[in-house]
Amino acid sequence: MSGMEAQMLEPTFVVTPPSSSHADILAAAARCFKENGFSATSIDDVAHSLGATKGRIYHHFRSKTDLFFAVYRRGMEINFKATLPQSKYDGDAVIRLARMGLSHAVAMMAYQDFQRVLLQGVTMHQSGSTTAAQRETLVELIEIRNNYETLFRTAIEATAKEAQLNLNDPSVASKSFLAVLNSSVFWYTPRGENDKNEQITLARELVTFAMRGLGTDIPANAHDFLENNK
Amino acid sequence: MSGMEAQMLEPTFVVTPPSSSHADILAAAARCFKENGFSATSIDDVAHSLGATKGRIYHHFRSKTDLFFAVYRRGMEINFKATLPQSKYDGDAVIRLARMGLSHAVAMMAYQDFQRVLLQGVTMHQSGSTTAAQRETLVELIEIRNNYETLFRTAIEATAKEAQLNLNDPSVASKSFLAVLNSSVFWYTPRGENDKNEQITLARELVTFAMRGLGTDIPANAHDFLENNK
DNA sequence: TTGACAACCTACTCGGTAGTATGTTTTTTG
DNA sequence: CAAAAAACATACTACCGAGTAGGTTGTCAA
């Protein structure tokens, strides 16, 4: 809470799981939250999906809410790790944006469990959050998410300036852009066979749609950086 | 359950609230479900938001799940009522699609509570649904939703044919198209002042984005039919 | 007027769940 | 190797919330 706001865009906030068990719990929780939602999943559910009991979870997390927040944090961490490097590409703004979109879209499908939690978190806002500390973490998480969206918004505005697009409302444009890329969480489910390629193909289609929505086109060489991932 | 599949696109399934109290409960439930989600909302919450008690609700609905389903049904009813007429416009496919999009987008903002429930319903799928009858209603509701999406998909494919667009994957295109129009539920909140106009403006921007995503443009006269609503 | 029924309310039961307190086992540290 | 601490498991408690049973009030028809 010192001067971390300035570096918020850098992966300073990263809370990479200390132990492996910690990470396992996060993954299991994400799976459960994804399938049944936050309040419909019991701690016992998460524990059982690990072949363990409550004790193990409460040894690592204070409360169910804190567990949720940790999953949320991890989700944002994944997204930043995927997108931040692309956001630093200092060539054409169009290419930069396309790369960011592709990375985000792929991460969206590759880490569905966590991404679903992110969407839930947006909705879950001012409902419960009993503790004062929890409210505090909540606004922090929201801020992180805002920073992430700002990443896209600035890239979009740069693209608009570069390509002479006139966006009536840049905010709405950003929201729409991300809505397209995020949409896969609602209908895509990995089939386990040729996942990576399938995801890249879909990501390309989504980004194409989103870029066209802005009024421009996805550059031909924008997805080069993805190939060597395979 | 006889031959209603053939007429599914017609508002045959409409279950307009018998009593006014019934409708009030639906509205209140939609509000609660929107704010806290399904399983985080108690029947007492809904009752209390009506200044009543559980008894009133259980007199009209068998269970909490049935109440949710009723809200879902009402939501779909709203959407069909808004979009179906536009889907019958027999001029250019582009105009038809644009009109459908505008109607849908406006309905999305004007009936936020119910629309949020629709999105939850998509996710809520095969989780609980204890009763066999409930599972049955669930597949029926999913079918209704599929029919609604098909409405858009056929309109999109007609537009693509008419305007010589080549959509790699019409399915993905449809999903993206609707994702943009639906996105407002995540960030838009009516301010109560000049709502109707604001919503129309936003809807126009969203449809513009979505149509461009497909590779075409929103016709200038597409939104004529909206003006006389004011 | 009286019955009958709809539209509620009140007061309960009871299963499920978050959280805790207290063991038990394994690992680490000195 | 002993002791301490970490990493769990077990066995509780306390509460909340879905569903129910039975009572109460109004309305309407005969």
Characterise the protein shown here.
The structure is a homodimer of 230-residue chains. Chain A has helices at residues 20-36, 43-48, 54-60, 64-87, 93-110, 112-124, 132-163, 170-182, 184-187, 195-214, 224-227. The longest helix of chain A has 32 residues, at 132-163. Chain A has 230 residues and is mainly α. Chain A is 69% helix and 0% strand. At the A-B interface, helix 6, helix 8 and helix 10 of A face helix 6, helix 8 and helix 10 of B. The first copy, chain A, binds a DNA duplex (30 and 30 nucleotides) through residues 19, 21, 42-44, 52-56, 58-60, 63-64.
* Number of strand elements of chain A: 0
Strand portion of chain A? under 5%
Low-pLDDT parts of chain A are 1-17
- Describe the biggest sheet of chain A? none
Largest two-chain interface: A-B, 33 and 33 residues
Mean pLDDT over all positions of chain A: 89
Q: Helices and strands of chain A, in N-to-C order?
A: HHHHHHHHHHH
**Helix-residue proportion of chain A:** 55-70%
Backbone CA Rg of chain A: 18 Å
- Please give the alpha-carbon distance between the first and last residues of chain A: 39 Å
**Apparent shape of chain A:** globular
Structural class label of chain A: mainly alpha
Oligomerization status of the protein chains: homodimer
Number of DSSP helices of chain A? 11
